[in-house]
Amino acid sequence: MSELKTTTVEINGFPCRVWTKGSGPKLGFLAGLGGLPRWLPFLDRLAETRTVIAPSLPGYPGATGHTELDTHLDWVLAVRQLIDKSGLAGADLLGASVGGAFAAEMAAIFPAHVRKLCLIAPFGLFDDKEPAADPWAQRRDNVPALMCADGAKWTELVAPPEGANSVEWPIEMTRASEAAARAFWPLGNTRLEKRLGLIAAPTLILWGERDAVLPPSYAKKFATGINGSTRVQTVADAGHLAYLDQPDAVARAVLAHFA
Length: 259
Prior knowledge:
single chain; 8-stranded mixed sheet; about 20% strand; AB_hydrolase_1; AB_hydrolase_sf; AB_hydrolase_fold; hydrolase; hydrolase activity
C-alpha cells in the first residue's frame, strides 16, 4: 500500500490538512466528532482498494479557521471549498457524525459533486420525541462511553499522537470540540430535513446499534427523507463512531456500497 501523504489547502485564508493514501478511485472521508488526530485502521482498510482522501474540517485536528465561520451557510461553503481543493468533486463521499451532516449537505446542494454517498450516524436532524444527547454538556469522563461502544477506542483516538506537544494537544482537542459546537450546537439540529429530498446520489446509511449520541431510529428518518435509492444497515457492537468500534465491518459495508 502507498505511504500516507500530507498536503495543505487554504480555506478562507487558513490551512487545512489533507491526508491521502491508497490507490484506485477516489473516496473522500469527512470524520466525526474528534476529527482525525491520527490515521485510522478503518482508513487503511478503505485504502486497500481506493484512494482515500481525508480533509480536516476547519478547527479540527490539522486545521484552523473555524472562528471565521459564523453561520451554517459559512460552514457549508467552507466544506464545498474543501471538497474542491482536495480534488474530491464528483467522487464518492463518506461522512460520519458531524462530517456526515456536511456530506449530506454536499449531496443535496451540489449534486454533481457527489457520485455515491455513505453516511455513518450523521448529525443534522432533531426529534423532540427522541432527543439526541448533547455531547457538549458531558463531563469529560462520560465522553468515551458516549462516543463508542468500547470507550477505550475513543480514548485511543484523542490521545496525543506521536510528536504532539503535551501542552498544546489538549488545547487542540478543545478547539475541535468548539468547532463542532459552532457548527451544530444545540443538539446537532441544522434543519437538514428540509434538504434531504434534494439528495439523488445512491446512499448507504450506517448506524451503530449502541449509538448513545443519536438514537438509531434517526436512520429511518434520513432514509425516508432522501429521494435517491437509500439503504440502512445497522452495525452490531458499535456506538456513535462505528468506524472506531468496528473498522472491518464498517469498511466492508462502505466498499460494497461504493463498488
